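PROTEIN DATA CARD
Card holder: Urocanate hydratase
Chain length: 554
Origin: Streptosporangium jomthongense
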Amino acid sequence: MAEQNGRGPIRAPRGTELNTRGWQQEAALRMLMNNLDPEVAEHPDKLVVYGGTGKAARDWRSYDAITRTLSTLKGDETLLVQSGRPVGVMTTHEWAPRVLIANSNLVGDWATWPEFRRLEQLGLTMYGQMTAGSWIYIGTQGILQGTYETFSAVAAKRFGGSLAGTITLTAGLGGMGGAQPLAVTMNGGVVICIDCDPRSIDRRIEHRYLDVKADNLDEALRLAYEARDARRPLSIGVEANAAQAVPELLARGAEIDVVTDQTSAHDPLAYLPIGVAFEDMADEAAKDPEGFTQRARESMARHVEAMVGFQDAGAEVFDYGNSIRGEAKLAGYARAFDFPGFVPAYIRPLFCEGKGPFRWAALSGDPADIARTDRAILDLFPENESLARWIKMAGERVHFQGLPARICWLGYGERDRAGERFNDMVASGELSAPVAIGRDHLDCGSVASPYRETEAMLDGSDAIADWPLLNAMVNVASGASWVSIHHGGGVGIGRSIHAGQVTVADGTALAGEKIRRVLTNDPGMGVIRHVDAGYDRANEVAEERDVRVPMREG
Ligand code: NAD
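Structure generated from the sequence above:
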């Protein structure tokens, strides 16, 4: 077990005893600690939670100062966190967030990886990813449902609603990418998952996200064909460099139906170039970051070229939000953007309804609390069959990492109902302790990211970053427990601005009021953002559900 700065492994407190002056502060403390629980974080010894170098706190001194401050923070005070370091405590009021977080933000012209790394080395910033630095990462499950939804949409678009009898090829079995095998098998399909780090493969097998490990590509293909022919779901991990293996599979004429990728391509120092042994990767990247970046980009160009080759051969191919097309393009590969990103291809219609990755964690630590909230969701939305299928499968198959948690995509007019129900359940004692309700930054109205969430917007507003800032401000104004604004996230420095919120259901009437506002206004941002961009579905939703948009009035 990795030591965490000379102490034992970090684990969030469980139960109802407070270590702070109130549940809002307690939730922030527990969720920060939970992010760094070795069961949750990819590299807890380095404060890295997921997504390449996404960290929960800048350094161990900052971590200690944050936890110390949260333990005495009053109910009318707000802690300010600047890129993982606590920099001030201000007197505010009880409706204000207890923590405000800004991570990795840089002024436009300075928003490049080399400049970011220079500042990081000076100890002035850290990479916050999306939910790492905003303390609402819940392990691989967090991405599982979104990935499940995406593969369902692929199945609906190309394969008659199921992936049974198809083979998907992908790479990257890290914190997020590790959801892919289970998401494909939940949709009935077969998947070959390449990763250069044997630990990533073993970890996913241990967590039951991945079924088997093949010794080499030959064995992987043999197992895949057998399962496909029997229309049996199967996920197969294989250790290889994707920049070599994907072109090799293409050259062999492998029968692949769907291709995507979730290596850490957004950060060229976290993508293994051809010719570098995995064991030497960290040293080589540290020794010569610029040279390594160039080599990684060239390898990504080979990788993307092969993905385009599979598309030319008839496969369904999409970028899964890791910037691999952008990096391949930087290396000079002209056809890098020949295949689409997953958001315009499958997810945008959901965003128009304010749908996105709603999630919650049981601060009690008791899995029975999540089982009760699962039942509440089924009870609240009986007409939603795919939601019911997800909640049932998640209850059976998802291995909790750290504090028990659940994710499901809910939209405008749904999240507030779920949140209020949870708050009532805390108040009545049906849940044994409060619940932290948050979401990914990858949401309908909280992100500007031209290679991902806002790729190919109808009105060309892909790079307009006012929306996430308005989103953060409206969540502060509505009573969220903590709010964050980040730059970089899943697509890398210079490529996105996004915001997050977490609101704690502690069973009080005040929390109920806050929840009603936050969980209405937060997804409401998704509806108005897409109305503004001219999406018909968003206009219908605004009309049906009374979302006020001044430009539609009068
Ligand atoms: P991670 O760092 O935890 O894991 C990345 C994995 O890729 C590691 O296991 C690593 O060994 C492997 N890898 C690196 N180079 C490789 C190569 N050349 N060949 C084979 N394997 C290689 O990252 P993560 O949290 O899993 O995220 C993966 C990517 O997906 C990131 O770029 C992230 O920003 C992006 N992402 C996308 C979404 C989405 O919504 N689609 C959400 C979150 C993250």
